[in-house]
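Task: fold both queries, return tokens.
Query 1:
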Amino acid sequence: MLAWFGLDDTASPGESDRLLADLAQDMAATGHRVAGAIQINRDLGPDCACDMDLIVLGDETNPIRISQSLGGGSSGCRLDTGALELAAARLQSRMDGAALMILPKFGRQEAVGRGFRDVIGQAMLQGIPVLLHVPRQQRQAFQDFAQGMATRLQPADLVTWCHRQLTEAA
């Protein structure tokens, strides 16, 4: 099972990351093994872009910085794609026995076949339900990837969906 949610344009920056971090914590408290990664954005002040870290669930003491500082006035993409690939590999090695997977998003890297895309496919092959955020800009690429196998959820329904997946897996 593959499920996703989106947020409207009025959502505050980082809202999906906060929702998923809270959800991952709640699901881990159920005693089920939850795999995945959450993104933590660290505010550096009004004149600086935030630092972005990925926390692989089960390996919380080793966050992976996925942003790079490009300096003042820079307008290029700050994503460190090598660090994202490292996070995906680290997560892939922790998937066995998981009852649920939570991922930060299906972003530009996943849209072009990188990032967590292979992890999503592997989880689905193993029967691990996957939940993630899909930003508006990547929805068509996600639909092409999912080929009709994904369910759209409202943010208010995430907890219920996850509990249902965990109950069915037990």
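Query 1 returned. Query 2:
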Amino acid sequence: MKILIMKFRNIGDTLLATPLAANLRLAYPQAQIHFACNEGCEAMLEGNANIDKIHIYRRTSAKNSGFLKRIKTELDFLAKLKSEHFDIAINATEGDRGAYLAFLSGAKTRIGFDGGSFASRLLTHKVAQNCEIFGSHTIEHDLALLSALSLTPRTKTISIAFDDYSEFFADKLPASFIHFHPMSRWLFKCPKDEIIADLLDFCELELGVKCVMTCANDAKEIARCENILRLAKSKPSAFLGELSLKQVAFLSSKARLFVGVDTAVMHMAAAVNTPVVALFGPSSAMNWGPWDNTCANSGYKAKNGIQHMGAHSVVQASWECVPCSCDGCNGSKKSRCLDEINTSAIKELIKAKLEKG
């Protein structure tokens, strides 16, 4: 049997789909499980024992190419999927593209969420997105697709594989440290730089714990992090755009604590079982809170405010407009709920988690 999982979203979404692959492996131990994802997300899947083959869609090059080259990219990708002769194709992405690919792949069993569109009619098994599923955590949302195969989730553990980078980081990491990742590709998910600088100073100067800051290899993220370092009175270590995703996962696994915003690296820290303090703004913790691998069910039941799930915590303003899922207040690309976040509560959580060990 061959099974295809498709998740054409971002890095964090891809990582959070790994429990779906794990459940399919448990249900069909002899099956070949393939995973199709966007280019740049494959690091979340490489080395995963539950995934036999990864199919990478060159989304960026396709979007930036001329019409004919884009058509060729699409046809080549479809041809590769079709050549695998899948028995089951699962579209774990809301949207029509995966439904069309499932149909064109030739898979007899085609599973996805019922979007009410024409493409949904091409699925043989549709899962209704009722209020309970739509409002659930992304992991539980994806696992709802198992019902189409009459399966019940047996694990909700997120997994990410990475090499031992001890030699690479030799003499570069403190013996004990907090991992800070204050940036996201969507800067409206990030508080103003002064807040992060203040938290760094609190950890290093008041608590006496070294901090290590990371960010993606993106000019805007690097510029913001450099400004944070200028604002800080302390001298944290920093890897600004220097590390691969696998190296970041290794670094995070060695940290005593992770502090950051709603981004893929936050989910990676949770996946390697490092306690997380996450600063949330426009995002819903119900859908995107850091998942604790030791828990059976999500702990994020409130609309906003401070919430906990196992070793992880989310700090979010208790405002009526939060979460709004908007790209900043009134399209400004800046979120006031983050710029005015309760730093005292964040500091208390950091201190409590470090004391708990």
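Both queries returned. Flag for query 2: The longest strand covers residues 32-38.
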